Design the sequence.
């Protein structure tokens, strides 16, 4: 999860002022926490609150209907409850209406918000099947279009595989065969890639940025260099890179200085939760 947060914060100042190179300062006073991090924190909170109420049977959450039903309601609860406290963090129009709705319903979105917030699922899942099922449960609260569900799932599967020791070639093959064509390079698309907020034009680019990287920091820099929706693209790349490489302590600690007390406390709670799971 911290990888997504780092990517979001580093990319925040480039979202509407793209930097198409890897040469830039990671953190400046122009950086900030955006909806990518806020909603990632909300999903993490939803998972933790679900776990407090229901311990999954046979260690397989994805096959537990009661668990998934509660996770759905907790996702809605905490995305709204936390989201309403940060009304100016960068929500898209339809999502903003959902956050403040008295009767929130999914709105057939395939926006890249589905993938930016999903990393806690990839970390908590015990099997690939579980990762996919939980991803669908969380994502379908808002992004119930097939491409929204697909974008989140491709991200979660990449995170799950990275966390569990898969090689980059194995991840590439899995995504190529089941989700997106990854047969391009960042150098090939950098000069022509346009700002795009859809899963189908953000998730593949973010995954390739990870696949081409040589380290966690290089993954973030590569993602930023693509241009486009920089904070979200870097958040998705960072979520996979964090699971694969781990985030360097100095980068992680600097990113966390951008959190206020409330968000930091939920993040710390998540870290303790994951430690207890292990």
Sequence:
């Amino acid at each position: 999860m911290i990888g997504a947060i780092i990517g979001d914060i580093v990319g925040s100042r480039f979202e509407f002022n793209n930097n198409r190179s890897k040469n830039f300062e990671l953190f400046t006073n122009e950086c900030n926490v955006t909806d990518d991090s806020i909603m990632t924190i909300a999903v993490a909170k939803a998972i933790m609150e679900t776990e407090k109420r229901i311990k999954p049977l046979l260690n397989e959450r994805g096959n537990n209907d009661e668990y998934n039903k509660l996770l759905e309601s907790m996702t809605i609860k905490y995305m709204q409850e936390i989201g309403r406290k940060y009304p100016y963090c960068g929500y898209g129009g339809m999502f903003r209406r959902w956050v403040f709705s008295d009767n929130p319903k999914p709105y057939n979105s395939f926006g890249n918000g589905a993938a930016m917030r999903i990393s806690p699922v990839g970390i908590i899942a015990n099997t690939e099947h579980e990762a996919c099922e939980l991803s669908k449960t969380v994502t379908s609260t808002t992004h119930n279009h097939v491409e929204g569900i697909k974008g989140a799932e491709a991200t979660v599967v990449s995170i799950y595989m990275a966390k569990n020791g898969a090689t980059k070639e194995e991840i590439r093959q899995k995504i190529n065969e089941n989700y997106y064509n990854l047969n391009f390079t960042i150098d090939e698309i950098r000069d022509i890639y346009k700002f795009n907020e859809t899963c189908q034009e953000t998730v593949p680019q973010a995954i390739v940025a990870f696949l081409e990287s040589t380290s966690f920091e290089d993954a973030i820099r590569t993602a930023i260099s693509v241009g486009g929706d920089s904070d979200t693209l870097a958040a998705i790349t960072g979520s996979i890179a964090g699971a694969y490489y781990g985030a360097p302590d100095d980068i992680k600690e600097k990113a966390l200085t951008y959190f206020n007390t409330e968000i930091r406390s939920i993040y710390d709670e998540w870290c303790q939760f994951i430690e207890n799971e292990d």
User: Anything to note?
Assistant: The domain at 2-24+32-277 is CATH 1.10.4080.10 (ADP-ribosylglycohydrolase fold). The chain is about 60% helix and 0% strand.
